Automatic annotation (TrEMBL):
<feature type="domain" description="WYL">
    <location>
        <begin position="133"/>
        <end position="200"/>
    </location>
</feature>
<dbReference type="InterPro" id="IPR036390">
    <property type="entry name" value="WH_DNA-bd_sf"/>
</dbReference>
<dbReference type="Pfam" id="PF13280">
    <property type="entry name" value="WYL"/>
</dbReference>
<dbReference type="InterPro" id="IPR051534">
    <property type="entry name" value="CBASS_pafABC_assoc_protein"/>
</dbReference>
<dbReference type="Pfam" id="PF08279">
    <property type="entry name" value="HTH_11"/>
</dbReference>
<dbReference type="InterPro" id="IPR036388">
    <property type="entry name" value="WH-like_DNA-bd_sf"/>
</dbReference>
<dbReference type="InterPro" id="IPR026881">
    <property type="entry name" value="WYL_dom"/>
</dbReference>
<dbReference type="InterPro" id="IPR013196">
    <property type="entry name" value="HTH_11"/>
</dbReference>
<protein>
    <submittedName>
        <fullName>Transcriptional regulator</fullName>
    </submittedName>
</protein>
<feature type="domain" description="Helix-turn-helix type 11">
    <location>
        <begin position="6"/>
        <end position="59"/>
    </location>
</feature>
């Protein structure tokens, strides 16, 4: 586990407990040495996190040491709830799991979020049935690799293309992949529902994905406020 990820995981373990946790228990859960736990605790304390060492008991994160976040209004809570539900239904497997985890935390800590989860005015349609393809595309984008796609157009004609995947758009009636198509040597948009097969090629993108994303945004005149 990378150092930053391990430190965040340690913080997550401490946040979920109301009683002190021994260093050995934390080390076992993180699969590291006790000495590594000590170093990570010191690093978190140096960042100002209120972690107390309780003699003969372990470490405790003082919840009173955090500034309480500003509460959500009812409409803000419903907007956040709807956004998370969209990812829970339409995202890749890692994003679905992250959204569910974030959703649970918000519901547990916010009365407005709890009410929104029970009485929301809007809902999200179930998964479109393309979760496996979404997972493959997410993996390729994360690792910045090209994909080979067997694609069927609106007339039913199939082609095999090498794409540089950039971003997946979630629209009301479909999901679209924006990518650079080697066959056309240009940016193109592909309906995920028309992808018959998708394979990660293990060939790296010729440019970082963030650069391709910026180029695609400029070409399509996409701006952010």
């Amino acid at each position: 586990m990378a150092r930053i990820g391990r430190t965040l995981r340690l913080l997550e373990l401490l946040r979920g407990r109301r009683m002190p946790t021994p260093a050995q228990v934390l080390a076992d859960e993180l699969q590291v040495s006790v000495r590594t736990v000590y170093r990570n605790i010191v690093a978190l304390q140096a960042e100002g996190l209120p972690i107390r060492a309780i003699p003969q008991a372990g470490y405790l994160l003082d919840p009173q040491g955090f500034l309480r976040p500003a509460p959500f209004s009812a409409l803000e809570a419903e907007a956040v709830h709807l956004g998370l539900r969209l990812i829970e239904e339409r995202g890749s497997t890692p994003l679905r799991e992250a959204a569910r985890s974030a959703h649970r935390k918000m519901v547990d800590s916010s009365h407005a979020m709890e009410m929104a989860s029970r009485h929301a005015s809007f809902t999200v349609a179930p998964d479109s049935g393309h979760a496996q393809i979404i997972d493959v595309l997410h993996d390729a984008m994360t690792r910045e690799l090209r994909v080979e796609v067997t694609y069927r157009d609106a007339l039913g004609n199939s082609t095999v293309r090498i794409l540089w995947p950039i971003v997946v758009g979630m629209f009301q009636d479909c999901q679209m992949l924006a990518a650079h198509c080697e066959l056309r040597n240009a940016f193109r948009h592909f309906r995920i529902s028309r992808m018959v097969a998708v394979t990660v090629t293990e060939q790296r993108l010729p440019k970082p994905r963030r650069v391709l994303l910026a180029e695609w945004q400029r070409e399509n005149r996409i701006t952010h406020d």
